[in-house]
Amino acid sequence: MTPKVTAAQVKRFREIIGEIKELMDEAKGIIRDGPRITYERAKAYPLGHIYSSLDGDSEYLGENCTLDAIADELEDAVTPCKKCGSPLDEDQFCTDETCPFHEISQDDEPDTEPKLS
Ligand SMILES: [Zn+2]
Fold it and tell me: Which residue in 34, 61, 101, 103 has the most C-beta neighbors within 10 A?
């Protein structure tokens, strides 16, 4: 099946990763105000796992399957405009305003050329 992920979706996905990081930093701050042993345990296990799953900055795990890596894979799968190769927006319109297909949705069959009206 042809991937139908769009550049706009990948952008939103990266924003979500950023929002998760912000929430995790807040959560970490709350845990830090608790007992030291609780904080140490949280850093070693749940916090460490979540941070390393996000971007691999953490020393806990490898960075082979982080959400950042997933975002990179999604970006590689974004279907480009059939005419000019520019990214498509969430409605499958070419994002290049000078492209003849800028006003034509490309969400038809993968092998069908969009029709110019
Ligand atoms: Zn185009």
Answer: 101
Q: What is the spatial distance between Cα 109 and Cα 102, in angstroms, rounded to a whole number?
A: 18
Mean pLDDT over residues 31-57, rounded?
Answer: 90
Centre of ligand 1 from the C-alpha of residue 6, in Å: 14
CA distance 117 to 105: 12
pLDDT (average), residues 67-86 = 88
pTM across the whole model: 0.70
Residue 6 burial (10 A CB sphere; 0-12, 13-18, 19+) = buried
pLDDT tens profile 90-115: 788 898 999 998 988 887 655 556 66
Strand partners, 80: 87
For 87, the 3-state DSSP assignment is strand
User: What spacing in Å lies between the alpha carbon of 2 and ligand 1's midpoint?
Assistant: 18
What does the DSSP 8-state code read for residue 79?
P
Of 7, 28, 5, 9, the residue nearest 17 (C-alpha): 9
